What we know:
By secondary structure, the chain is α/β, with parallel strands linked by helices. The protein is built from 14 helices and 14 strands. Helices cover 41% and strands 19% of the residues.
Amino acid sequence: MIAHQLDSIGVASCGYLSPVCDPFQEVEETYRLSEKIVGEFIKRNLPIEFITKCKVPKQVIELMAGHPHCFGQFSFVTGREALRKRLMRGGATIDELFASMEQAARQGLPVVMRIDPIIPYLSDGREELLELVKRSMDCGATHIVASVLDVPLKIVKEVFAKFRRFGVGFVYDLTRLYSEVIDGYLHARIDYRKRVFDYLRNLCDREGITFALCMEYELIDGRPVGLNREFMSSTNCEGVNVPIYRRVGERFVPAASCSGACLVCTNPECGIEDLAMGLGKGKMDFTLADYRKWTRLLEAGDDRAKSGKSTEIQGALESQGQGC
């Protein structure tokens, strides 16, 4: 299925395993589906990333480490193992997760550490956050991503009920703190979130690594506005710039001199203006249909898709294709 989808498009961005379901749960040991998906991307010279709270199989790291634009994200909810066990089922221990991160970094795979989510009054202590950042750097991380817990409005009661194990007073404090509704989610007050993010941004600046937020917003005139404009020190959320890829023969190559910094891009050399967030009219969510649409436009020579750069792009593609 993945192979068929990849072969149906002529333009692609970085693959993503997986924002919905951890790709390296125990079932991976039996079926090795995530490893096979990674293999299909690498076979076509396409980059892919993962996000996980589990140990990453050695074979997956070796596959991805050989590609210049693959990277891995390791997600932590706390730096305390006893608390981690109370908060989540399954996953690797904190020591195992850091060991997996270090193994990936030693193989040459860029690694990102996520503190995601930070739970107010439970895992937001400055000493704990400091220790997580420093230990991740010791294990090879060069970028930190953070977010504070948000809760879908439909399940607020259920989520807060589960927190009763930490005490009635804790739940009472959360109920007072969580008062902002943005796009169907209940968020902690903006002043609290900004204090946490300000501390982390300053910490990362001091330690010499980059920082960004994940899906964090504030309401301005009733409209959600991303907080990364205030706190991000990298050129994209994930801290690793990955260019858009275009097909040359049976394989893909980077589109011209594209750096992959879509959030600040105002000159889309990939030929796809929808990706150029710096123009103020790009969009964040993309589907397979979008990539097929761009493939058709680019193959047909549509001037809107090529943005007047067809000669430059084609020359760069042919040059890079010879070295694949």
